[in-house]
Specification:
Elements lengths: L1 H19 L1 E6 L5 E7 L4 E5 L13 H8 L3 E5 L20 H12 L5 E6 L1 H10 L5 E7 L11 H9 L9 H9 L4 H9 L6 H5 L4 E7 L8 H7 L3 E6 L10 H11 L1
Parallel strand pairs: 3-4, 3-5, 5-6, 6-7, 7-8
Antiparallel strand pairs: 1-2, 2-4
Helix pairs in contact: 2-10, 3-4, 5-7
């Protein structure tokens, strides 16, 4: 009996490790290495991180914890140029929605037939484009984002593209200093902004699935969130306490996302 009890403990240990501690990688369409976490065994949810960030930004957030506690499978990649993924330095590696292609191929690689997706900040911009190309997405959450990214000449995008190419001003110096402090790749960040996906309002309006736009009450960095939610045929807007940098980590954010996904 004691031996059987020990075997059960060993099995549970390895099952827990296999379910919750897997960091993996794959080579995408142009040979760049993409690193991702894959935890849990249930219905898949893709989490997409923001600018000057990585998959680790979702660690210790209430949302990731709650998703795993509710039995979801949570897939969190480092977008190219970030975290532990490859950081190509040539412009062609970021053109033509390369990050969107990476995410589609990741889901192909994992043989996922249907999934839900949550983006935050720049991750929402990438997800918006993904919505127009991947019909496997059942529901989507765009966090920390307003309508401005739909403009190909968005001044904020251009401002930050220039900043990470050396043209820094008072508005961007804090972001550049932070990027340097965490040893982020400035060249890659510049190219991520220069070739950031742009999705027109017209194309967003063709999306038929349910889409939730969720922003903190104090988050006005990226344009009008109500206009963004109204662009979708089945869009809703939810506001919760918080500013742009903190909202996605909070319990109210998690509560609203889980209510929507369920």
């Amino acid at each position: 009996m004691k031996k059987n009890h020990q075997l059960v403990i060993i099995f549970l240990f390895f099952f827990t490790y296999a379910s919750f501690s897997q960091t993996k990688e794959f080579k995408t369409f142009d040979g760049i290495n993409i690193v991702y976490n894959d935890a849990g065994t249930g219905e898949p949810v893709l989490l997409i991180h923001g600018f000057i960030n990585s998959r680790k930004s979702w660690d210790n957030t209430q949302l990731k914890k709650d998703l795993l506690d509710r039995g979801y499978r949570v897939i969190v990649p480092d977008l190219r140029g970030n975290g532990d993924s490859g950081k190509p330095q040539d412009e062609k590696a970021y053109k033509n929605d390369a990050e969107v292609k990476d995410l589609k191929l990741l889901m192909d690689h994992l043989n996922i037939q249907r999934y839900k997706a949550v983006g935050y900040s720049r991750g929402s911009i990438v997800l918006a484009k993904l919505l127009t190309t991947d019909k496997r997405i059942e529901k989507a959450v765009l966090g920390g984002m307003g309508i401005d990214f739909t403009n190909p000449q968005w001044d904020r995008r251009i401002l930050f593209a220039k900043a990470f190419d050396g043209d820094i001003n008072d508005e961007t110096k804090g972001a550049v200093a932070y990027a340097k402090s965490i040893y982020a790749d400035l060249r890659s960040l510049h190219l991520q902004q220069k070739y950031q996906p742009v999705t027109s309002k017209k194309n967003l309006g063709k999306t038929k699935i349910d889409v939730m736009v969720i922003c903190g009450y104090e988050d006005t960095d990226n344009g009008d969130a109500k206009q963004l939610s109204d662009t979708f045929a089945n869009g809703i807007l939810v506001r919760v306490p918080g500013d742009h940098n903190a909202t996605y980590k909070t319990a109210p954010f998690s509560d609203e996302v889980l209510r929507f996904l369920n």
